[in-house]
User: Fold this.
Amino acid sequence: MKTIRETLILFIHYEKLLIRNPYWILAALFQPICYLYLFAPLLKNVMGGAGAGSVSSINMFTPGLLVMVSLFGVMFVGYGMIDYLREGVIERLRVTTASRLALLLGLVLRDVVTLLVQTMIVIVLALPLGLKISPFGIVLSAVMMILVGCCMSPVSYALALTVKSEDALGPILNFFSQPLLLLSGVLLPLTLAPVWLKHISTFNPLKYVVDASRDIFNGHLSNPTVWHGFVLLGVFVVLSFWWSLSCMRKATE
Amino acid sequence: MIVTKDLCKTFKHGKNTVEAVNKINLSVHEGEIFGFLGPNGAGKTTTMRMLTTLMTPSAGSAAVVGSDLFKAPKKIRQKIGYVSQKGGCYEFATGYENLVLQGRLYGLSKATAKKNAEEIIRAFNMDDYCRRKVVTYSGGERRHVDLGLGIMHNPKLLFLDEPTTGLDPTSRADFWATIKNLRSNGVTIFLTTHYLDEADSLCDTICIMVHGSVAAQGTSQELKKHIAGDVIKIGMSSEYYEQAKMLLQPRGDIHEIQITDKALKLYIETGEKALPEILPLLVEADIPMTSIEMSRPSLEEVFLKITGYTLENPTEMRLNK
Assistant:
């Protein structure tokens, strides 16, 4: 109860600060718009003979784009944490009686809400391009994006609290995010990939999330890929919270 | 308020271990301003971070406001306030918002948090700027908000880490008045500082830390008396130095005799008592004196002496030439 109260207090505070800085939201929306309108049209021709069956290229691309937006939108939140560390905010908060989980959850909740807004805007913007999705599909993919956010945002904070410097955080995040992204089939489906690439991609957890997201968008909810994706995300959410919380407990030592 | 016993903190850097704080024993009494001094790297901040529950000590024991540091850090957090060197405001929120949020995080209701914030704003004369974003504040304004954050929940004990570093003389004097005011409202204050004049005029008890250990502790007066002693400077020509030294050396109350330019410098326990005894000795021995000067040592001299620097400091030499 105490933790929930403190989380909400901090969340509302962070949202207030966010709304005062609208440029940030504009920047966060610009990337998905670019991909939707400048990249998606290319896919139509590329995918022509890729065996995508009845699924249109925009229905193939949008779910992947959502995963990418959520990943990149949230991945760099650690930069803000480094600012807070430097300004002594984290230290000051850690001396208060607030629960350590609430200090983390307030930030994560802010990130997830931003992500949800982005998700909805991407879906709405994709509709004129021919996207077809059921209301239930929207709800389920929103839940999925929440989980992706709950996975990536704590990881970014944990990493920031560990390395404590932008110079280290940026390269580390890029080092992991590029291969994860390319091997997930976000931009082009892995059905186009040679066999060896497909094999490597089976080790990429993000691939299963993208697959699940695609099946949700296209109404194949009974496919095992869907629950595989959710279970995998659930496990990662628990791990990333556990890591991040232990970093927060000793953040300034 | 604070009692520590053999409190230690060791850091591991690869294979090396560094003893940042080595078995320190402190006792801070209720209602006092306790000044924690020492050169950079002496372990002041580390000690403070242990006492404020930010860092777990490696060994020893401590009680802060009656609660055990190891067993009940949460209880301690409720009773203490802490203002770090950096302050820790949200820069893009207003001072008022920062204060209210802090109060809410300590479990105060919205109404109480607002009431406390407004009281602090009134007490610190923050009306002019408290509704602006903190990023626009001057150093002194910011320091007042930082201090306000530390006392939003009416703590019994307040930790201040170098509270006046970087402030101009007026803001510093202003800040000292605020701190003294807090003390008279019953708040015990534990502060670190590099300014010896600050420690001298503000602190009831002074503790000097060197290389992770407590080197001296007492009131400013006690430290000056016992460690540096009064200084008596007797002017005479150099051929009498040795003779005078031989005469005075047997006295038990002289800590040190130094020869400076055209004068003999005695560090002595109680100057006003010793002077009437010393003078006849020198007169009897027919040592012609050219001048006599007695001074109380500054806290700076105490500090330099304890931290291992010599008192024959280069600035004096330069002045004499």
In short: Chain B is about 40% helix and 25% strand. Chain B touches chain A at residues 49, 52-56, 74, 77-78, 80-82, 84-93, 97, 101-102, 104-107, 149 (CB under 8 Å).
